[in-house]
């Protein structure tokens, strides 16, 4: 099968499945598990059974329903864990961002291609070159 840009609608369901079952860096969980309280069984696991699918298939229906109910009861705990992970991730990103900020600077020299040499307000030159795209202009 040749895939072209005209076939996007046929591939959309696969892209959505991948998006919903991939672990997000921000939350540390999949979107599917946050909504339904358990991980999704991907199509390949049905064709070639994984240990998880084999274990579920050997359960009685009542036992399987009981386990699903227990997992739903744990969904609040999973969401709190995700919230904690989210807050830690945001703090980490804030630390990284704030570590790069050196305070107000003056453009000392510009080069072609957008490279800039900055200096502090007292005239001390900052060593690394900076890309002009990451600077924010400030007017007095």
UniProtKB/TrEMBL annotation:
Recorded GO molecular functions are: nucleic acid binding
- Domain of life, per UniProt, equals Eukaryota
The UniProt entry, under InterPro entries, shows:
RNaseH_sf
Question: Which Gene3D superfamilies does this entry report, sorted A to Z?
Answer: Ribonuclease H-like superfamily/Ribonuclease H
Q: What name does the UniProt record give this protein?
A: Uncharacterized protein
Could you tell me which species this protein originates from? Answer: Punica granatum (Pomegranate)
